[in-house]
């Protein structure tokens, strides 16, 4: 059937085939090239007429050729089409050209395959973009590992490596933050004050991360220092409140809730004095 549009533009079809912004190929069912446009020929570095009779897989890099012949070609024969597979062409100078390949099978009137129509699109920029994304992900993963290591190291400095209970008392603790990326604001300790008294505290500061770590560190060391000076639990918390109020005020307030106690062994057990305080 004559198409009037083709009569109006007699050279348009040939021009489109030869100069399309993608590679166009027609091969036999044996993958031997019958027609190749100038775009494709320019990529592989051969005139179009020299490509006639060459097998399309022979223009692929070794890995791509193996994948094409063992996976893609059988799938194309089975389903009649392939969409967007990734392959590497080899140029005349040995350079690799990443491409996306789409193909379908041309059949005769009886439905038997007689040829393959292949479209090849340059994927160099996309491959470069993918490499950049992969590198960015590797950089992000390394940074995340670094942050987690710093957070874990800082967290270990804010909790005691072990507890020191008095004889006759068993004490255990387990600390696990909600996220390995953040430093938690919880703190605790059990430590000797004198030969006959032990201090214990458990608390939580507002927030998380570096800001919370600063408050946690100051709170822990203040509690220990205040208890060494005067171990009355109420006095210890008053001293802590004074230090935090002096250090954090104005537009940068920080709060904590603390339970502080003194354990004193007795003949039949232990006496425990407790005091608590915190924000509402």
UniProtKB/TrEMBL annotation:
The keyword Hydrolase applies. Transmembrane segments: none annotated. Residues 83-135 form the PAC domain. Keywords: Hydrolase. The keyword ATP-binding does not apply. Pfam families: PAS_4, SpoIIE. Coiled coil: none annotated. It comes from the Bacteria. SUPFAM superfamilies: PYP-like sensor domain (PAS domain). CDD domains: PAS (cd00130). GO terms for molecular function: phosphatase activity. NCBIfam families: sensory_box. PANTHER family: STAGE II SPORULATION PROTEIN E, STAGE II SPORULATION PROTEIN E-RELATED. This is Putative PAS/PAC sensor protein. It comes from Mycolicibacterium vaccae ATCC 25954.
């Amino acid at each position: 059937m004559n198409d009037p549009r083709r009569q109006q533009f007699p050279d348009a079809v040939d021009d489109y085939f030869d100069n399309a912004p993608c590679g166009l190929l027609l091969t036999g069912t044996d993958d031997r090239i019958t027609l190749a446009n100038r775009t494709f020929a320019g990529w592989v570095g051969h005139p179009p007429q020299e490509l006639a009779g060459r097998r399309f897989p022979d223009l692929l890099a070794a890995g791509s050729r193996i994948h094409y012949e063992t996976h893609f070609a059988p799938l194309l024969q089975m389903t009649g089409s392939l969409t967007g597979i990734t392959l590497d062409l080899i140029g005349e100078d040995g350079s690799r050209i990443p491409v996306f390949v789409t193909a379908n099978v041309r059949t005769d009137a009886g439905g038997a395959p007689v040829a393959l129509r292949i479209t090849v699109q340059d994927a160099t920029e996309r491959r470069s973009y993918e490499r950049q994304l992969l590198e960015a992900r590797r950089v992000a993963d390394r940074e995340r590992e670094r942050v987690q290591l710093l957070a874990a190291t800082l967290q270990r400095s804010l909790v005691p490596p072990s507890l020191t209970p008095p004889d006759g008392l068993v004490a255990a603790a387990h600390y696990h933050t909600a996220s390995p990326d953040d430093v938690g604001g919880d703190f605790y300790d059990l430590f000797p004050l004198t030969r006959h008294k032990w201090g214990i505290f458990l608390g939580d500061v507002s927030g998380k991360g570096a800001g919370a770590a600063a408050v946690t560190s100051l709170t822990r060391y203040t509690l220990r220092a205040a208890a060494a000076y005067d171990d009355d639990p109420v006095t210890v918390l008053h001293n802590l409140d004074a230090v935090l109020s002096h250090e954090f005020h104005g537009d940068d307030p920080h709060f904590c809730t603390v339970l502080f106690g003194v354990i004193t062994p007795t003949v039949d057990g232990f006496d425990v004095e407790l005091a608590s305080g915190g924000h509402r």
